[in-house]
Write a structure and sequence with these properties.
CATH superfamily: Ribonuclease Inhibitor
Distance between the termini: 20 Å
Strand order of the largest sheet: 1-2-3-4-5-6-7-8-9-10-11
Radius of gyration: 23 Å
Order of helices and strands: HHEHEHEHEHEHEHEHEHEHEHEHEEH
Structural class: alpha/beta
Shape: globular
Number of domains: 1
Length: 417
């Protein structure tokens, strides 16, 4: 890459040619990009035109605005990322983006989360990606593409060999497209991260979990898997664990907001005794209780030496289970991140975690609690740390410097663009 870009001047001309008014926010972002010297010496920059920026006046991007913007970026070799989250793009905007993706050879990151793209828009974007050979990360979170829209992405995964990270969470997908996606991932060799959070499932048979487990037995590339709000119970956890005995690539497993009880945690405990690859386990908002926490603590204390982050937030765990987990950290030096808020803290729990933090075994920015003392008694206060702290938002004031506050980024780099 050489020379100074002139994105703003191109934008002004494009607005004139298409008869569209200039958007001050877009114009400002492009002016700042033109002044950024680093794009001449690095692989490029990401244009952050998010509609939820609270520090500057924002006019949300419409379909017409996107038509102008993609015409500006069509021949730009400097822009490798485009963040359009929280705008008002519809299927018409998706058509402009799909046309852009078919011919673009520089864009690597595209964030369209929480727009108004539906089924037909999903079809257009998925078909555009069948020809695209550069995009590695796509976030479609919160766009209600439905089961039919998810099927188009499943078909895309059979042909696209470039995309590495695909986020389809909160998009109203159904069982049919989840099974199709799992089937496609059996043979896909490029996908490293996929988010399938909160599908709309009407069966209690856990067929989707069974198919995802079958996929994990064959897939050799997937590093990060999100299965939040899948109505998963102990049967599903058992199927996943059976598959993960044969899987040597998965490092980050998100099972948050399911219906896993201590009986299901037994299977996870046995898996952790033998698994040598899993580094992050998110069990937030399940039903572990003390017994489940103890099963995990035994595996972590005596056997596992690869898990680095564990979340058991809001799991109805009492002092007995929480103290067991703190004791496990005294013998397991690899477990560095633990999140426990939302459980029942007794005095023993407060003392145990206060000791871990006080001795330096648990760094203050690697957990979601902080000890404080009142009238001679130790208590724990909540910190805004967690495995996915920056999933829905990023700080408007600058880059995230302290990645320990969001350990999925600090540990599994595949989560980050």
């Amino acid at each position: 890459m050489s020379g100074r870009p002139d994105l703003h001047q191109r934008y002004v001309r494009a607005c004139q040619n298409l008869g569209r008014p200039e958007k001050p926010f877009i114009a400002q972002v492009l002016r700042e990009a033109d002044k950024d010297d680093k794009i001449r010496w690095t692989k490029g920059i990401t244009l952050k035109i998010a509609g939820n920026n609270h520090l500057v006046p924002v006019q949300r991007v419409t379909d017409y605005d996107l038509q102008v913007l993609v015409s500006v970026l069509h021949d730009s070799e400097h822009v490798t990322g485009l963040d359009l989250r929280y705008n008002v793009l519809t299927d018409a905007g998706a058509e402009h983006m799909a046309t852009f993706l078919q011919d673009n050879s520089t864009l690597q990151y595209l964030n369209l989360m929480f727009n108004d793209i539906g089924t037909s828009g999903a079809e257009l974007i998925a078909r555009g990606l069948q020809r695209n050979q550069t995009l590695t990360c796509l976030r479609m979170t919160g766009n209600k593409i439905g089961n039919e829209g998810g099927m188009f992405f499943a078909l895309m995964l059979q042909n696209n060999s470039t995309l590495e990270k695909l986020d389809l969470g909160d998009s109203d997908m159904g069982a049919q497209c989840l099974i199709a996606i799992a089937t496609a991932l059996k043979w896909n060799k490029s996908m490293k991260m996929i988010n399938l959070n909160r599908p709309l499932l009407y069966s209690q048979e856990e067929e989707t979990t069974v198919h995802i487990a079958l996929m994990l037995k064959n897939n050799l590339s997937l590093v990060e898997l999100h299965l939040c709000k899948h109505e998963m119970k102990n049967f599903g956890v058992e199927r996943l664990c059976e598959a993960l005995y044969k899987n040597s690539s998965l490092r980050y497993l998100d099972l948050s907001c399911n219906k896993i009880t201590p009986d299901g945690v037994k299977f996870l405990g046995e898996l952790l005794k033998q698994n040598q690859t899993l580094e992050i386990l998110d069990l937030n908002a399940n039903r572990l209780g003390d017994d489940g926490a103890i099963y995990l603590s035994r595996a972590l204390a005596l056997h596992n030496r690869t898990l680095r982050a564990l979340s058991v937030v809001s799991n109805n765990i009492g002092g007995k289970g929480l103290v067991a987990l703190s004791d496990a950290m005294k013998t397991n030096m690899e477990l560095s991140y633990i999140y426990i808020w939302g459980n029942t803290f007794d005095e023993a729990t407060c003392m145990a975690f206060s000791e871990l933090i006080g001795t330096g075994r648990l760094k203050p920015n690697c957990t979601d609690v902080e000890p404080y003392e009142v009238d001679g008694h130790v208590h724990l206060a909540e910190l805004s740390h967690g495995l996915q702290k920056h999933y829905y938002w990023t700080p408007s004031c600058g880059e995230v410097n302290n990645k320990d506050a969001n350990s999925s980024l600090a540990i599994a780099q595949v989560s980050e663009y």
